[in-house]
Amino acid sequence: MITPLVAAVALFLDRWWGEPRRFHPLVGFGRLASGLERRLYRDSRGAGVLAWLLVVVPPVLLTIWLVSTPLRPVFEIVLLYLVIGWRALEEAGKKVRVALEHQDLPGARQAVAELVSRDTAAMNETEASAATLESLLENGNDAIFAPLFWFVVAGAPGAVLYRLANTLDAMWGYKSTRYLHFGWAAARLDDVLNYLPARLTVLSYALAGALKPSLQCAWTQGRGWKSPNAGPVMAAGAGALGIRLGGRACYQGQWQERPVLGSGRLPQLADIGRSADLMTRALGIWLAGIFIVWAVLEIMR
């Protein structure tokens, strides 16, 4: 029963403490990756693969060594706690919500800019709420459910591998002139590692919200999104909440027509809190599932 107990304790620590305010290992990893990029950057896939391996493999090997020691449970709890961002995600959404509640639209725009890559300077309240919801629903998979999935499958090394790969995708996985080739490996590997967790996140959003519309939106709308994993996850979350996301958005001064995700009304301020509640219920489903699976495996031994 060590795996479900470790997961429960790590989630409790994240809920209690949140992310470390200073010396977060992922921040250090990002700086390391940026430094390595400056030295190894070439406009080629090969350079990107090499950079990915050099920055990801050593921490994963260190994790494998740590969990081979007698202090394995302690290291697993600490490492899983460090790669989960449940409370941080809710706090980011709350920052936007509080600004909008106080009719501080400039403050809300600034808070949204910390979550998304699109232009926020001209957003109204509905657009700010929609952008926040898209980010929260997508990152529910990236920061909570996918790390849990890989922890269950491959222990702390799996969770660390996933979170580092996901971080590199956020840094290098763009189809821009600079990263089209160099960031190819980071983007593709993140897609592969997210494929199964994203589908389980879709199912958990559906079970935690409106089941039928959530699954219908994920199936019919998700495949049209630019990301094969983010699309179904956001569509399922929007369908579960009964709101409509996606549509027109501005990136670096250029307007883009994106597919509509979800169904129902346009998002409102209150939906930011509803999305946090949806993720909490979905997380409860995951924890129950993990405990049930491990109990069945113990009985079968």
UniProtKB/TrEMBL annotation:
One of its GO terms (biological process) is cobalamin biosynthetic process. GO terms for cellular component: plasma membrane. Keywords: Cell membrane, Cobalamin biosynthesis, Membrane, Transmembrane, Transmembrane helix. It is found in: Cell membrane. It comes from the Bacteria. One of its GO terms (molecular function) is threonine-phosphate decarboxylase activity. The keyword Mitochondrion does not apply. The chain crosses the membrane at residues 47-67, 143-165, 278-297. Pathway: Cofactor biosynthesis; adenosylcobalamin biosynthesis. This is Cobalamin biosynthesis protein CobD. It is a multi-pass membrane protein. Converts cobyric acid to cobinamide by the addition of aminopropanol on the F carboxylic group. The keyword Transcription regulation does not apply. NCBIfam families: cobal_cbiB (TIGR00380). Belongs to the CobD/CbiB family. The gene is cobD.
